[in-house]
Write a structure and sequence with these properties.
mainly alpha
Length: 165
């Protein structure tokens, strides 16, 4: 539609980029779900500037990519914890430790998953050495997933930009 002006397009792009930035920060510091926030930024852009540049396939594929990013996070954390002998309790302890650790940024972000997994494993009746290994694995899994998550999110954002360019 030609009723859109350049000012509306620029405003829509700025709003979308703010969503993208918050989404990327949410991936690095999991305060909020990063991938859905990035996808939401694309949707908000469409509502402001119009959906002329996008197909239904685009939004469905972007939603699948967002789900894949979240899946990578759970997969890596679970694999890391399991590889080092952890249980489901250790996995959930790492997740809770990460959330609590956010209040003690930046050290809490580093120590939260580890301590959460260790405490959960100890409550689950594991031996101390096994609990420490589970915490170590959960932490490695969480941080090991970051590059993959950021790459997938970059693909999402670049694909969006190529559609509007």
């Amino acid at each position: 539609m030609y009723w859109r002006g350049a000012a509306i397009d620029i405003l829509a792009l700025i709003v979308a980029m703010l969503f993208f930035l918050v989404g990327l920060v949410g991936t690095l510091v999991p305060i909020m779900p990063g991938p859905p926030t990035i996808w939401l930024g694309m949707l908000v852009y469409g509502f402001i500037a119009g959906f002329d540049d996008f197909s239904v396939f685009f939004f469905v594929a972007q939603a699948i990519l967002a789900l894949a990013v979240m899946g990578v996070d759970y997969l890596f954390s679970g694999m890391g914890s399991r590889y080092f002998g952890g249980s489901k309790a250790g996995f959930w302890g790492a997740a809770i430790g990460l959330l609590i650790g956010l209040f003690f940024f930046p050290f809490g972000l580093l120590l939260g998953p580890f301590l959460g997994a260790v405490i959960a494993e100890l409550i689950y009746r594991r031996q101390t050495a096994q609990a420490i290994m589970s915490g170590f694995g959960a932490s490695i899994g969480f941080f090991g997933a970051l590059p993959f998550k950021l790459i997938l999110e970059a693909v999402m954002i670049v694909w969006f930009i190529t559609n509007i360019a």
